[in-house]
Design brief:
The complex is a heterodimer of chains A (117) and B (114). Helix content of chain A is 0%, strand content 53%. With 117 residues, chain A is mostly beta strands. Chain A is globular and about 40 Å long. Chain A starts with a strand and ends with a strand. In chain B, strand 7 and strand 8 form a beta hairpin. Chain B contains no helices and eleven strands. By secondary structure, chain B is mostly beta strands. Chain B is globular, with a radius of gyration of 13 Å. The chains are: A mainly beta (117), B mainly beta (114).
Chain lengths: 117, 114
């Protein structure tokens, strides 16, 4: 069955430390991958999206994600955390529905990032 | 600033009320979506409109009725809701329904059903 999993519902880092948020998918065909961020009482903002052929994707606010087909992963990283990065992060995938023009966007369970001074 | 505008930001309604949520985008996007997000959960798809026609209904109860009057507007009509329908309702749009087409979300309407 096709699925998306975010490892760790909560991640806590110190300001200036590396941020690593994990996302794995289960699918026989690589899906279309996205990362979104949600700040309290707001909607979701697109951080980045996977483009076929590129393994390292750069997004906004200094975030980037690496696509590893062999590991079926699309982990999100940022070299140095900032207090303003505290939010909830969602990995989202569109699985190839095989011949149809639409793939439902499915979200992972989310990871809450806390940044300590 | 979000390019998808949702009104109202907050809504409290009784179980016998009729109310509507509104969503507007001026990015020329041809697909629009309604999502429901419960506390501490990811968004769940409710409806998808493509070129102003309903293309997907995720088995949503009939007390939720979507409407797309034109390519820029999306409404969600609410009637006889239950307390468990209290949630953040998010509207989103995308250039198309293609696989690589990212969704742009509004800030949502926080709905409380009493």
């Amino acid at each position: 069955a096709q699925s998306v999993t975010q490892l760790g519902s909560h991640v806590s880092v110190s300001e200036g430390a590396l941020v690593l948020l994990r996302c794995n998918y289960s699918s026989s065909v690589p899906p279309y991958l996205f990362w979104y961020v949600q700040y309290p009482n707001q909607g979701l903002q697109l951080l980045l999206k996977y483009t076929t052929g590129a393994t390292l994707v750069k997004g906004i606010n200094g975030f980037e994600a690496e696509f590893k087909k062999s590991e079926t992963s699309f982990h999100l990283t940022k070299p140095s955390a900032h207090m303003s990065d505290a939010a909830e992060y969602f990995c989202a995938v569109r699985f190839n529905a095989g011949g149809t023009s639409y793939g439902k966007l499915t979200f992972g369970q989310g990871t809450i990032l806390t940044v300590h001074p | 600033d979000t390019e998808v505008t949702q009104t109202p930001k907050h809504l409290v309604m009784g179980m016998t009320n009729k109310k509507s949520l509104k969503c507007e985008q001026h990015m020329g996007h041809r697909a629009m979506y309604w999502y429901k997000q419960k506390a501490k959960k990811p968004p769940e798809l409710m409806f998808v409109y493509s070129y102003e026609k309903l293309s997907i209904n995720e088995s949503v109860p009939s007390r939720f009725s979507p409407e797309c009057p034109n390519s820029s507007l999306l409404n969600l009509h609410l009637h006889a809701l239950q307390p468990e329908d209290s949630a953040l309702y998010l509207c989103a749009s995308s250039p198309g329904q293609g696989y690589n087409s990212p969704l742009h979300f509004g800030n949502g309407t926080r709905l409380t059903v009493t």
